[in-house]
């Protein structure tokens, strides 16, 4: 007797290493609440599209167990490298990253298979007592580890005092009403972690553009697997071409500026009626000056070139207008 339909595909979490076998795709993930939440969504799509069983394989990194600050460890790059090493070592078949943590340069042996539909790209204020940024008292203490967010906060509220912020989402939120009046975090991370209730204001992207790729995921595989099934079927189901185009435009800007993830650069790309628009701002670290450019171009499905060109053109215009003298862009990745 033959089955007319395959048994319901399953997603399961593995406690240890899982050997490769046909009909199984292993997705590597960090163990944080945020990482598990976003990887589970991806796993369900992959299972439905391929009929494969899907295992979530938690990859523990030095960054997850160390109490050193991220800066001491070498930035979010440590998480990215651990997942890529697990892919190359054959411990998993797919890896899910927050796109904004991925360096813009290529990585030998690794391909980006898909960029799924973006979550909220905005930054969120999480303040005590439901306060918005405008409602915070004079001299309020606000936490962020990001030079871009610090500059944006100071641009809007030169009176506040900005404090460094480290650790996972729960640790950062815990500082509110402990020793800080508010913290700024990515809305996407809070939404995906089920912590949206902590948000007291979502900043408008037009005035507070966020990190290139923020709110989007990047799904990677070994580049030898990319075009074959079940990978191709998984990527076709996962990829959102419009998010992909916007994210590439934003990341192309960062790459052409030779800027790292800590550079005070905000970007927001959007697609409306076949027109791709990229807006980008470079901030002086004290928030006292900024430079904004906007570039647009027609875009249709399958056009991989325009997003790259748009990012490069916006970067060129920023540099021509003095962006490098305004802010440290360095720490190229
Ligand atoms: N900087 C770390 C980081 N990398 C990805 C996210 C979650 C948001 C996203 O997926 O873009 C965060 C947290 C934050 O910025 O608050």
List the helices and strands and how they pair.
Layout: E1 11-14, E2 24-29, H1 33-50, E3 53-58, H2 62-65, H3 70-73, H4 77-88, E4 94-98, E5 110-114, E6 123-127, E7 141-143, H5 147-156, E8 161-163, H6 169-174, E9 182-186, H7 187-192, E10 201-202, E11 217-222, H8 231-238, H9 241-256, E12 265-272, E13 275-283, E14 290-298, H10 305-320, H11 323-326
Parallel strand pairs: 1-3, 2-3, 2-4, 7-8, 7-9
Antiparallel strand pairs: 4-11, 5-11, 6-9, 6-10, 12-13, 13-14
Cofactor: dipyrromethane
EC number: 2.5.1.61
Catalytic activity: 4 porphobilinogen + H2O = hydroxymethylbilane + 4 NH4(+)
Task: Explain the overall architecture.
Its cofactor is dipyrromethane. InterPro entries: HemC (IPR000860), Porphobilin_deaminase_cofac_BS (IPR022419), Porphobilin_deaminase_N (IPR022417), Porphobilinogen_deaminase_C (IPR022418), Porphobilinogen_deaminase_C_sf (IPR036803). One of its GO terms (cellular component) is cytoplasm. Residues 25-226 form the Porphobilinogen deaminase N-terminal domain. With 333 residues, the protein is α/β, with parallel strands linked by helices. The protein folds into 3 domains: 11-117 and 216-239, 3-Layer(aba) Sandwich (D-Maltodextrin-Binding Protein, domain 2), CATH 3.40.190; 123-202, D-Maltodextrin-Binding Protein, domain 2 (3-Layer(aba) Sandwich), CATH 3.40.190; 245-326, Porphobilinogen deaminase, C-terminal domain (Double Stranded RNA Binding Domain, 2-Layer Sandwich). It contains 11 helices and 14 strands. It has helices at residues 33-50, 62-65, 70-73, 77-88, 147-156, 169-174, 187-192, 231-238, 241-256, 305-320, 323-326; strands at residues 11-14, 24-29, 53-58, 94-98, 110-114, 123-127, 141-143, 161-163, 182-186, 201-202, 217-222, 265-272, 275-283, 290-298. The strands form 3 sheets. It has a 6-stranded mixed sheet with strand order 1-3-2-4-11-5, with helices on both faces. Strands 8-7-9-6-10 form a 5-stranded mixed sheet. Strand 12 and strand 13 (275-283) form a beta hairpin. The longest helix has 18 residues, at 33-50. The structure holds the ligand NCc1[nH]cc(CCC(=O)O)c1CC(=O)O. The site of ligand PBG has 10 residues, from strand 9 and helix 7.
């Amino acid at each position: 007797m033959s089955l007319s339909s395959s048994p319901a595909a399953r997603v399961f979490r593995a406690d240890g290493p899982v050997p490769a076998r046909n009909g199984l795709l292993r997705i590597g993930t960090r163990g944080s609440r945020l990482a598990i939440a976003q990887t589970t969504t991806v796993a369900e799509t992959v299972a439905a599209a391929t009929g494969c069983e899907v295992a979530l394989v938690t990859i523990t990194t030095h960054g997850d167990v160390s109490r050193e600050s991220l800066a001491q460890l070498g930035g979010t790059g440590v998480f990215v490298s651990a997942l890529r090493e697990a892919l190359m070592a054959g411990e998993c078949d797919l890896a899910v990253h927050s796109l904004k943590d991925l360096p813009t340069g290529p990585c030998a042996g690794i391909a980006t298979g898909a960029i799924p539909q973006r979550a909220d790209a905005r930054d969120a204020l999480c303040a005590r007592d439901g306060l918005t940024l405008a409602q915070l008292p004079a001299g309020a203490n606000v936490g962020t580890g990001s030079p871009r967010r610090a500059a944006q906060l100071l641009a809007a509220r030169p009176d506040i005092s900005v404090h460094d912020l480290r650790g996972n989402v729960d640790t950062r939120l815990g500082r509110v009403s402990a020793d800080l009046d508010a913290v700024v975090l990515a809305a996407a991370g809070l939404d995906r972690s089920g912590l949206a209730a902590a948000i007291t204001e979502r900043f408008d992207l037009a005035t507070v553009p966020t990190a290139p790729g923020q709110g989007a995921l990047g799904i990677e595989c070994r580049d030898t697997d990319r075009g074959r099934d079940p990978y191709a079927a998984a990527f076709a189901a996962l990829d959102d071409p419009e998010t992909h185009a916007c994210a590439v435009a934003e990341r192309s800007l960062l790459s052409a500026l030779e800027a790292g993830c800590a550079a005070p650069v905000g970007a927001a790309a959007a697609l409306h009626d076949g027109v791709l628009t990229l807006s980008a701002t470079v901030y002086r670290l004290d928030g006292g000056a900024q430079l904004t450019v906007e570039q647009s171009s027609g875009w249709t499905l399958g056009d991989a070139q325009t997003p790259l060109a748009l990012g490069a053109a916006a970067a060129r215009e920023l540099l021509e207008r003095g962006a490098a003298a305004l802010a440290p862009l360095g720490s190229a990745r």
